[in-house]
Amino acid sequence: MAKLERANFSSKLGVILATAGSAVGLGNVWRFPYMTGENGGAVFILIYVVCVLLLGIPCMISEFIIGRHGQANTARAFHKLSGGTPWSIIGYMGVLTGFLITGYYAVVAGWCLEYIWASFIGQMQGAPEYFKTYFAEFSGDPVKPIFWTIIILGITYIIIEHGVRDGIERASKLLMPTLFLLLLIIVGASCMLPGADKGIEFLFKPDVTAINSNVFLAALGQAFYSLSIAMGCICTYASYFSKQTNLTKSAVQIGVIDSIVAILAGLMIFPAAFSVGVNPDSGPSLIFITLPNVFQQAFSAMPLVGYVISLLFFLLLSLAALTSLISLHEVSTAFFHEELVITRKKAALLVTVTTCIIGVFCSLSLGAVGHSLEFFGRSLFDWFDFVTGQIFLPVVGFLTCIFIGWFVPHKVVHDEFTNWGTLRGRFFHFYIFLVKYVCPICILFIFLHQLGLI
Ligand code: PHE
Fold first, then answer.
1. What is the CB-side half-sphere exposure of residue 381 using CA atoms within 13 A?
2. CA 326 centroid distance within chain
3. Element (H, E) at 378
4. Does ligand 1 have an atom closer than 6 angstroms to the CB of 282?
């Protein structure tokens, strides 16, 4: 096979922003706030942060180790480290998970674009019922969501096709600071509303009576999803890290950035929701139904501010989705590029077209074609969500920990962990303890819980 020159990120900032871009996504802005709302506010946040630190970060370091050691796409990286034993199947599963998620994640990312457009032309105004109907009609439409899915995948293609430095890294350096800025502007506006203090209190005052085993498992599942673990993304990006990248420090920095964005997203949503008396635990429809209404009501005295905030909010959501989509797309692009030995451009095109097809079917399954894309009572869209998020993610995560903790020689892990002895690696034994015992056991619990077995 021809020797391919391996690209890498040009700087530490590039590493952090690109990987944080993968982690910061719809999970932070959409899923985290409603899970916080449903699971007792501040208690959930506290448990979540502990899960990120003790479980999410060690898993992320493991993927860093595999990716950087392999200097190749996720499947090949596992293959190399396992010496060609059946453990390499985990790598293939990771790539497959990333590939399948790309299609349906693009559909939701496309919705965000539609909402930017709708906000822009002033359609995000009306009675509370209006927002419900708008979303139902839009998501069940046969053409509109597909149009937006194609647009977002097209944008992703252009970025990916430019390569690791000129595409992914450059886009992340532009998009991530913009995302932060938008977040701060909306948090500021939301926290200045009358009655906002109740929302802030809800977010930061722990309600210990809400603690139960479900809260733990929900926090754990959210931590994994939010850090993009077990989907091939982290491993693929790590293959572009240089030998000098401090893996532990980077993982901690990314975990911290990701958690800060999630908490800020809560600060953006709850104060506004409380100020107009809307119940914060509104489930997944929070973003596309409840929030446009909340923003409109909260700023009813200043309609122009309401208009701008709604527009900026959906822009923020789209940017968050786009940076995650780029990392998902890159998993399969790197795989096809290296395994089929085709140019990066061709590989990217192949991924764009195939994931577009998946996206089209997922989108159509949400109503446009009646029940014909429904199987065993679930739409195709829900099946993708279920199989990737609740089956593949925990299985790949679990096996990755077992692989690193029990199978790979600790000398190899130690070399990567300490950059070949140039770093002190004080936490190495603690890290090994976590990936060997604590992480697999906890992942097993989430898995069984999600399947309703415990
Ligand atoms: N971490 C992303 C989020 O919070 C979701 C994601 C999962 C992205 C897996 C890439 C891979 O939305």
1. 19
2. 11
3. strand 378-379
4. no
